[in-house]
Prior knowledge:
Blueprint: E1 6-7, H1 10-17, E2 21-28, E3 34-41, E4 48-53, E5 62-68, E6 75-77, H2 88-102, E7 109-113, H3 127-132, H4 136-142, H5 148-178
Antiparallel strand pairs: 1-7, 2-3, 2-7, 3-4, 4-5, 5-6
Amino acid sequence: MSHPHQLTDIADVMTFLNAGRARFTLVSKATGNRFTYRVRAAKDGRIFFVSLMTGPDNERSFTYLGTLTPDGRSYRHGVRSPIAEDAPRARAFAWFHAAAIVRGDLSRVEFWHEGKCGRCGRTLTVPESIERGIGPECAGILGVRLPPAAAQAQRHEEMLRGEQEDMFEIQRRDVVFRDGGPGAGPGAG
């Protein structure tokens, strides 16, 4: 059994990479070496920018590496990347692209997401979403079919959100009533 943050299906990896805000770590099964990358969609969605984590801040320490097409079939090392194309971290992504994305072979690499949605970056809480790296709402936007349990969890989350909004409205009216605002009761206003 794999860990819930490890994607083992190439279709799930491709969905995650193309979601728009993917952050993930690749681990070589042969050497144990690991590198963390970020893939972000350009505003127009026609190209994805690949960056490599190069410092201790796993939120902001990313350096431009290259570009990836939305279908994932073409990766180009960036001419303006400060990381040399033959650097181990750059070669690792190029190898991952050729082996996993183009040939669909994940047998020599582990793909780990960080537990946040690859599209919006929110923390994932629905087990099926954690397994895929995409939250239920974003899965709907991306056209990803959810397993029945995840679809049920999405409906449950929407229901809870609606109840929470109703509770806030009741609290707001109660505050207005106690403060003597509109509708504050007999003798008010």
